[in-house]
Amino acid sequence: MESKYVSKIFEALSSDVRLDVFRLLVRNAPAGLVAGDIAKFLDVPATNLSFHLKALVQSGLVTVEREGRFMRYKASIPLMLDIIAYLTAECCSGNPECCRKFRAESHVDPTFLPER
User: Greater confidence, 44 or 89?
Assistant: First the structure.
């Protein structure tokens, strides 16, 4: 993964609205949500939401498919996992056993990052 592409993804998430949309879509994976439901859940006007959804789709973080007269948006979970892997690949100089103390100090739910 190239740093230019990753920075484009982080740029897409730099808006609090887009970050909230992405997290909502992750929560509703794999089915995703139609735009009207996203607007309702986040209390965002539809015109404002379409601008943010366009940025997320262009970044690749979200996909969209037509469902009759509705548009269904889905988070790209594989891309999200690739970004997490990109950020953590060289942690502690590639020695993951050194990271155990950081795991204990973090607020990450242990079920999300289980011990191996």
Answer: 44
